[in-house]
Amino acid sequence: MEPLKWKNAFKTSQSLLTWCEVWILDKKRTWISNIKTTFFALATIIFDITLLMEMQLLFNRRDYEAISIHLATLSLYVGFTIKIIMFMRKTEQLRNLIELFDWPGLDDIPAQFQQNKTRSIMSSNFISRFYFITVSFNITLYLNRPLYSSYFEYPIEFSYPLPYWGKYCLIALQVFCVYYTVLVGIAFDLLHASLARTATELLDILCKTITSFKPVNKDNPEAEELKFLTNCAIKHRHIKYLLVFMDFRLANSSEKVFTNILMWQYIVSIVSICNGTFQLTHTDSSVRLSMICNSLFVFNVLFEIAVFCWFAGLFTAKSVEVSTAYYMYDWLNSSQKVKKCLLILMHHSQQPIYMTAGTVIRLSMASFLQVVKAAYSYFTLMQSLYNKSI
After folding, report:
1. Which stretches within the chain are classed as H helix?
2. Buried b / exposed e across 271-280, counting CB within 10 Å, b at 16+?
3. Which residue in 10, 70, 216, 372 has a CA-CA distance of 20 to 30 Å to 195?
4. Residue 56: other Cβ atoms inside 10 A
């Protein structure tokens, strides 16, 4: 059986983005791809226009509760649409970034750590599949609201009058665009989380390789040790450049591809969590299925942003451990030249590596808590405005 490659960790997200024509594997597009892209783009634009039309009507009515409910819908789907546009401008850079994982040095790991590599790849795909299934289930419940509640005429509220055939066209448009924009949008975040997860595992294997190394050549151990440490330094530098825009001449790092997309996701998440919680607190408790939908919605948004914050934080923590691994290297019997080399490597690897959103927010569980706090502050504001309008 052929061993798995590191880029297989992105297979789930990559397959979905490829089918949706957001991520083209080949540089040459076929006529079928052009037709699909045109159809997806037109459908998404029309869908967003209907959302904006409904929001304008609600503002004219001054119905604050309905505005809050629709604002959660509007911010989510328009936000995902903007993320798709931002991502499609970076597809060439992302393609080059993924190709960097084919560098032979990343696969040059000791046999005892091959299992760690396989486990990392499988866990990344498992998390992606689990979240896709959870979100798909939630979307299905959400879109079937007209079936279990007579209050809803459409899956997403639309107050303008339509002819008989227009209603069915609008329902079909809403169902398709909700699945398309949401699944594609979360695929970006899961792809970023998989990149961080893979880079963390690469650093972990590097640390274990450094601490477990024993020179075999007894006649000239210094040359063997220097060669080993040089290869470790090159691999460490390559991993850093995969994830962080360390060199402004480098145009293929994930920081270059994802930083603005993640910043936009931060803003969308704050609005979505706030409005989703507002809906949950004002949902009639007798409509249990509606409460389940709102609860799952809040959970999915929290899980989405928590995943890439968690793995980004792990990557930062693991980046500091490389310096410790050099210190734990068996250097007592090494030559002065090897010890000086270790000191230099320890000094250069002491600086933590951060992944950012918008090059401003350092991704970690602390930044995740900032999102929750901001959403709660926004929620209390909405609640006070709602109480005054009663």
Report:
1. 11-19, 31-61, 64-88, 91-99, 104-107, 114-143, 145-148, 164-212, 221-243, 254-281, 288-327, 336-348, 365-389
2. bbbbbbbbbe
3. 372
4. 9
Identify whether the C-beta of residue 10 lies closer than 8 Å to the C-beta of residue 102.
no
Token code pair at residue 79? 């936000």
**244 contacts 196 by C-beta, under 8 angstroms:** no
The single residue listed with the structure tokens 């107050």 is 159
What is the residue extent of each domain of the chain?
Answer: 6-389
Identify the three-state secondary structure at position 357.
Answer: strand
Report CA-CA distances (Å) from 329 to 52, 207, 212, 350: 61, 10, 7, 15
φ, ψ at 25 (rounded to 5°): -70, -40
Residue 285, SS3 per DSSP = coil
154 in the Ramachandran plot: left (φ > 0), alpha (ψ -120 to 50) or beta? beta
Instruction: Give the predicted TM-score (pTM) of the model.
Output: 0.85
pLDDT in tens, 168-225: 899 899 999 989 988 888 888 888 888 888 989 999 999 999 998 888 887 788 899 9
Is the CA virtual torsion 328, 195, 305, 135 positive or negative?
A: negative
Backbone angles phi, psi at 386, to 5 degrees: -65, -40
Cα–Cα distance for residue pair 9/15, rounded to 1 Å: 11
Neighbours of 145 (CB within 10 A): 19
356 forms bridges with which residues in the sheet? 362
DSSP code of residue 356: E
Residue with tokens 């951060």: 354
Rg (CA), the chain: 25
**Max Cα distance, the chain (Å):** 88
Nearest Cα neighbor of 254 from 121, 128, 107, 90 is 90
Distance CA 150, CA 166 (A): 19
Whether the CB-CB separation of 80 and 72 falls below 8 Å is answered with no
pLDDT digits (tens, 9 = 90+) for 256-274: 778 888 888 888 888 888 8
To which H or E segment does residue 220 belong?
A: none
Neighbouring residues of 50: CB distance < 8 A, sequence distance ≥ 6:
156, 158, 170, 173, 174
